[in-house]
Amino acid sequence: MKAKRLSVIGAPLGVSIVGAWLSARWLGPGRELTMAVSGAAQTSSELLLRPSMLSFHGELEISPDTLIQAASAEPVFSWTAQTPTGAISIPFSPYGVSRSGVEFHHYWQRAGELEDVSDISDFSLPLALENAGRPFNLKEMGQLPVQFGLRLDQARYADIMLQFAKQAGAKITDDTNQETEADFVIECVVDVESAAWRGSRIGLSAPDDLSGAESQVFANAARRACALIGDLSDQPAERAEFNRLSENEADRIADMRTLLVAEDLQHSASPELLRKIDVFRACGRIPTEDFEVFLSPEWLAALRARGVQPRRYDRMADRLPEAELLSWLTQLRRQIEQITSAGNPS
Amino acid sequence: MSGIDSEGTVNRVVIVGGGTAGWMTAAGLASMLGPTGLDITLIESEAIGVVGVGEATLPHLKQFNDTIGVNEAEFMAATSATFKLGIEFVNWGRKGDSYIHPFGEFGLPNEGVAFHHYWRKFADRPDVGPLDEYSLPVIACRNGKFQPPSEDPRSVFSTYRYAYQFDALQYGPFMRSLSEKRGVKRIEGKVTDVALDAESGHITSLTLDDGQEIEGDLFVDCTGFFGLLIEKTLQTGYDDWSEWLPADRAVAMPCESAGPPVPYTRATAHEAGWSWRIPLQHRTGNGHVYSSQFLDDDAAAETLIAGLDGKPLADPRFLRFVTGKRKKLWNRNVVAIGLSGGFLEPLESTSIYLIQEGITKLLELFPRSHDNAVEEREYNHWMDLQFERVRDFLLLHYNATERDDSDFWNHMRTMNVPDSLRERLSLFDAHGHVSAYEHGLFLVPSWIAVLIGQRAMPGGYDARVDRIPDEQVLQHLAGLKGHMAKAAGSMGDHTGFLTSHAGMGRTV
Ligand SMILES: Cc1cc2nc3c(=O)[nH]c(=O)nc-3n(C[C@H](O)[C@H](O)[C@H](O)COP(=O)(O)OP(=O)(O)OC[C@H]3O[C@@H](n4cnc5c(N)ncnc54)[C@H](O)[C@@H]3O)c2cc1C
């Protein structure tokens, strides 16, 4: 029986991430996977891998250590975004810690109504770690109650993933004319459009204007395609599902983009983003959709940076006696200082 | 306390209704917001009484109990409760069929591919057997076993959760005593009049049959099918879903237990509906849910009585309802929780879960003032989604069937289902994929249990299964089946556990 041939072509980052995943999770008896990169990876550019990329690599048995050594990766606790009023830091982990099911920012807001308290970013362990001015090793990272991603060299990372795919049996070629030979083609481009599966072709696009979104979108698409393309025959139900999920993902990324950059938020926001803005402004909660790319602390940071402030805090935060609340906040700041300075060579 | 007591703030909550919904709401609010000075009053009328059914629950109730600090052993002893690991469905795919929808997983995923795909490839082989044999909670149900799940994710005993089956008439009083201890004021009386603010249309006060006037800032309508505040007063409107869920009657009748209580509820399909059997410590709850379009009351009662396991303990009690939900569950300063907000029929025991969800969302969005349009909209958005997703899952049971032995089943099997369900069914039908959602009650294993249990076998399976040699998959299946059987064998007996941990007064 003729082997089923799948080709992954296009931008180096997309081809390497998608191809690596498919080589480990799709390739098998009676199947061929060819990867053809067009254009060189941006040699000097840095790439951010969001925290969830660690489990993506974990499933491929590529450890953070491997990436640290082979692609000069460094742990990161936040990402930087541009807004009309300047650059902001968006942490991957919550400000402070939640208590009795109520998120920290409600307590912080209540404390602010009682007395002067310092900015909420002073209660962010991830931001403090980011500004600590010293490197953190993996052992330390494992003990910290924060999520972290990795910042690394894009070209070297793409190379690691390509080599991984090759070892797993994928064919790597320079010949970008793979389309004619293949039963199914996945083309990776860098763009803000959502991915679309039409006939025997998936066009995957990932945005490069939001740090970390690009690799995340390729990784999500790789998982999704791998689960749904099956034996590469035409599958209308799976195709519809793939496109539905990809659209949801693109919409949520577009929401974050709008939130960060739109001059007139109220008139540019989608209904889903408006829901987040309105509910946050009304009561400090951030509603989520079925499919989200960004984590709740990221939405919180972006909303606050764009001047969206809750009118009130969650009443459940009033359960904590005033004195206890204020001493808890002092204690939290002290703990953050201790963590960031521990082991500091200076 | 940060302005809460100043003018215009919401500080007085009045709950009308003392059934399961009313007392759960009172307990939830008193536990979570009582310490902030919230004033909570509950009005109930013993003369009107409660609906008195609603005895099977879902695992989420344990979380509710834990959050508000309910002691499990005390709660179970006070409500004659048993443990529940799933629901057995009899006669649903075809007459004579039986499957269990467990509160847990089937097998274990491998290389990111869900277990049922591996099983599907070899489902026709006799040595592979039914999917049920790969689920620990299903095997435990079939063998009358129970043990609390493990918290260690590596253990096979972490692959399930449990719920309770309790006496509905004992549950209200238990929650009442807890609520009163936490400061809830109870008033016995019948609400006869409701006063509205002329400008805002908000409710300002209620008048009771003894002339007492009760003022409030926020009113929770827990008056059951009466919908006294949300409908009779505010005329909110109702989304009638009987087009999809045509059952509109039930007849209930408890009976004596026929043996030790099993750790599951049974739902047996009949000619124009289905009957429940809920085993409690001291009796069995039974009822027949049916569509009056296809069956009359006498025939429904006959079917129920013919299927009882033991001697009846009361006369048959008939109930009427219309499946659907209020157009808005939160309208102005009224939030409808419980049957006043909607009812989707008792299949899959979702009603108490929806009460719990309503309370949780109300706590999350609890308004500070009457200017709460956003909170209202968000609450309604969330609850609509919950109701719609439950509706689709319930409808699945009626639609994914081969039964063609009555007008009712022919109608249900061939109906136009909502698009949301149709798309899910076609995705599953092709290669067994289930579209997962984040915000809904029923997760992927539940959809698989019902679809496969009702013979909606997918045409194919995830092609990644073919990457693994057949012998290896078969060996894995055999190993897993043996492991599950052995694990179930090592579990204790349900009745024994009830006796030692839940105050069951007799040994069997
Ligand atoms: C046939 C059937 C089977 C069911 N089985 C299940 C199940 O297995 N699992 C599940 O989760 N759910 C089930 N349910 C749903 C479950 O019974 C209800 O969700 C639950 O009992 C809550 O009811 P309630 O408190 O809203 O209403 P009710 O129990 O009817 O309480 C209404 C309260 O309002 C009071 N009241 C009404 N009018 C006034 C007035 N004017 N003044 C003062 N007080 C007033 C009444 O006195 C009463 O206290 C079932 C429902 C039915 C119909």
TrEMBL record, chain B:
Name of the protein in question: Tryptophan 7-halogenase
MF-aspect GO terms: monooxygenase activity
Organismal lineage: Bacteria, Pseudomonadati, Pseudomonadota, Alphaproteobacteria, Sphingomonadales
Classification via InterPro entries: Flavin-dep_Halogenase_NPB, Flavin_halogenase, Trp_halogen
Pfam families, per database record: Trp_halogenase (PF04820)
Domain of life: Bacteria
